[in-house]
Write the structure tokens for this entry.
Amino acid sequence: MLKGLLSRREFIKLSGAALLSLFLSDLHLDKVQAAHPSLQGRVVYRSLIVRDAPSFSGVQINSILRDSTVDIIDQVFGGADGDYNRIWYKLGNGSFVYSGGVQPVKTQLNQLIPDIPSTGVLGEITIPYADSVWAINRSPYPGPRLYYGSTHWIDGLVTDERDGSLWYKAYDNLYNSHYYTRPEWIHVFSQEELSPLSPQVPENEKHIEISLDRQVLLAYEWGVLVYAARVATGQKNFESPTGWFHTFHKRPTYHMTGGADDFSVFDLPGVPWDSYITDGGVAIHGTYWHNDFGHPHSHGCINMSLQDAKWIYRWTLPNVLFGERLILQPGVGTRVLIAQS
């Protein structure tokens, strides 16, 4: 629950960008994971410019290629008046990079879970990125790169007979096939970690409002605001739909692909915490390929940070049972309003 809960009427009174910004700041929506010497960042842009000041007007010092990792020692308020995202990251050498092009990550290794049920379990990548292969016990063929915070359906543990190494077997919905990755790179979720939030609140007393103008998502219980987060909705030519919807279809992981041409194509394995609101595939989901919330950025979906999307996934109805890969209940679910204002 948020400090200083607001009713919908009270929130609407926060008209104007300045007041809204102050409110969101009070809710710590402009904060990423607390800066810590062990916090890393993975570059998500093809090339990220390093500057001598936290502003796009700063002098370019260097550039860093995609999937490189950097040490983040602080986050600072920079940029210029009117920028929708004014958070910059300070690096260890005293230079700065724009936060939108950096995914905050950590490097955490995990213990092997030897007893994987035949129905499978959900796992999450806990290092900046993990490589996978499409085959073991023979010359391996490279599989998809699996990024920090992406989720994967683990339905087996197998041994590579060439060297005795153990690998998790993960199902890929796009190819109806399996890829393999190392157990130490994946955290396997317990039932408690995925338990529903606010289960005592009836379906008709929960709802979500998404403002396209303000690029924020607001979640309400009994008409009282209980969660707020920045989002990135559909960009030009891929606008998010408006109107009332329901979270009738949910998956904890999905391999998403799409795009109309070479400039808009995307191929994203392990997209986490998917709460679908349309038959056409528009969903509220976690995002590991950018960190640039507060501005339209998607192909119609509602992009959220990993932690925010997980909260929405656990809070909305219907609930995906532990050990199940999805739930599909047309006509039911938590109500979602997407509107311009």
